[in-house]
TrEMBL record:
PANTHER family, sorted: MANNAN ENDO-1,4-BETA-MANNOSIDASE (PTHR31451:SF50), PTHR31451
SUPFAM superfamilies recorded: (Trans)glycosidases
Cited InterPro entries: GH (IPR017853), Glyco_hydro_5 (IPR001547), MAN-like (IPR045053)
Chief location of this protein within or outside the cell: secreted
Listed name of the protein: mannan endo-1,4-beta-mannosidase
GO biological process, one term: polysaccharide catabolic process
E.C. number: 3.2.1.78
Single GO MF descriptor: mannan endo-1,4-beta-mannosidase activity
Residues covered by the Glycoside hydrolase family domain: 47-385
Residues passing through the membrane, by range: 15-38
Catalysed reaction equations from the record: Random hydrolysis of (1->4)-beta-D-mannosidic linkages in mannans, galactomannans and glucomannans
Length: 440
């Protein structure tokens, strides 16, 4: 009754609709620009990560990475209902001593698309990426930002080819034309330039000038199976890595490789998981040795590559796989090697929870031993970390780390071990100084 009387009174004075209109305007401002009132000014002193030979350095000290993948950060930041998950993930990871997150800086042509069509961007989604970077900075976390997907998820090269086909300029409908079609190359270069020169609305810093970004990754898991010789992909990597460096010489750059050895490699038959791995159009050494590529990337998924090995056999292979690439980093590439994805599926027929911890421990132990010996194995990234109530985004590799005590312990132990080798980073002091002391 009170509400009804108040409405009649306001309406009678001609104030009802102006007040409702003003309230709607305020609501619009909040939904559109609400983050502008969020305090991103917490003073975090981040320096650019540099590379000298086979090691990364920060402020003159060697830097080893205990990292993770949460590819979904920008997508979730684009919706205010899911945006709080970004802070939850980054804060929890910082408390575990994690230092770098690998995530997508692309979403082409789908829901919450950053790039709606070639050269056309959704400002709302760009602000979501701004938010991710600003929030990472607040928590002392650096980011590896991947620029396109070889796979179809979130658009990828398939979407670029579709755009060119719809515009009538495509040379072919093959997904691999992404790598050689001149029109598509122009699409991608325009995208890269737009992202690298973006000025973050929250920090005021252009992406190419922001040390929060650890590195750029050209493409997630590139393959060009229509040219198993590797020449097509190699040409694309040379052109695009040179283009990135022409815009941004402050940040490190990697390709985004899985680590397979190509048909010209002497390791193709002794280190690859199976024969098919040499025919994917990629080559770990040739693709990584370019002067415009600062470090190499490798993925570790033995249960995805093999279907007739038991867990013990896969574990043994994964260890040899890692050591082979660290050897390459030391002897051939003279660059750091990051294992930017590794995981064990819980959908395997013989899966037991203890197997995942054993696999994770093996990977972390290889990195720790490499760090102790000043070798090129410079870090690893779990695939993938989620927060609560994200089952829809789980791909059978997902972990909510603080819900798994044994896994949580493995992660934090690795943070402490690496801190003991390199010393505490300024961003880790708050969380690890007392946390690690009882373990040393």
């Amino acid at each position: 009754m009170v509400k009804s009387s108040m409405s009649r009174m306001l309406a009678g004075n001609g104030l009802f609709y102006p007040i409702i209109g003003f309230a709607s305007f305020i609501a619009f401002l909040y939904l559109s620009f609400g983050d502008l009132w969020v305090n991103y000014s917490k003073e975090i002193n981040l320096s650019f990560v540099e590379r000298n030979g086979t090691q990364f350095y920060v402020d003159g000290k060697v830097f080893y990475v205990n990292g993770w993948n949460s590819y979904w950060l920008m997508d979730h930041a684009a919706d205010y209902s899911t945006r709080p998950r970004i802070r939850t993930m980054l804060q929890a990871s910082a408390k575990m001593g994690l230092t770098v997150c690998r995530t997508w800086a692309f979403n082409d042509g789908g829901y919450n698309a950053l790039q709606i069509s070639p050269g056309k961007f959704d400002e709302k989604v760009f602000r979501a990426l701004d938010h991710v970077i600003a929030e990472a900075r607040r928590n002392g976390i650096r980011l590896i930002l991947s620029l396109v997907n070889n796979l179809q998820a979130y658009g990828g090269k398939t979407q670029y080819v579709k755009w060119a086909w719809e515009e009538g300029v495509a040379l072919s409908s093959s997904n691999d034309s992404f790598f050689y079609d001149p029109s598509i190359r122009r699409y991608f270069k325009n995208y890269v330039k737009t992202v690298l020169t973006r000025r973050n609305i929250y920090t005021g810093i252009e992406y190419r000038d922001d040390p929060t970004i650890f590195a750029w990754e050209l493409i997630n898991e590139p393959r060009c199976m229509t040219d198993p010789s590797g020449d097509t992909l190699q040409d694309w990597i040379e052109e695009m890595s040179t283009f990135v460096k022409s815009i941004d010489r402050k940040h490190l750059l990697t390709v985004g490789l899985e680590g397979f050895y190509g048909p010209k490699s002497p390791k193709k038959s002794i280190a690859n998981p199976e024969v098919w791995a040499a025919d994917l159009g990629s080559d770990f050494i040739c693709n990584s040795i370019l002067s415009t590529v600062d470090f190499a990337s490798v993925h570790v998924y033995p249960d995805h590559w093999f279907h007739h090995k038991n867990f013990e056999e896969m574990l043994k292979f994964a260890a040899k796989w890692m050591l082979s690439h660290i050897e390459d980093g030391d002897r051939e590439l003279k660059k750091p090697v990051l294992f930017t994805e590794f995981g064990l599926s819980n959908d395997n027929e013989d899966f037991e929870p203890a197997q995942r911890d054993r696999f994770l421990k093996m990977v972390l132990d290889v990195i720790y031993k490499s760090a102790k010996r000043n070798r090129s194995g410079a870090g690893s990234f779990f695939w993938q970390f989620l927060v609560e109530r994200m089952e829809r985004f789980n791909d059978e590799y997902g972990i909510v780390p603080w819900e798994n005590p044994s896994t949580y312990r493995l992660i934090t132990d690795q943070s402490c071990r690496l801190a003991k080798v390199q010393g505490l980073l300024s961003t880790q002091v708050e969380h690890l100084k007392n946390f690690c002391a009882p373990r040393n």
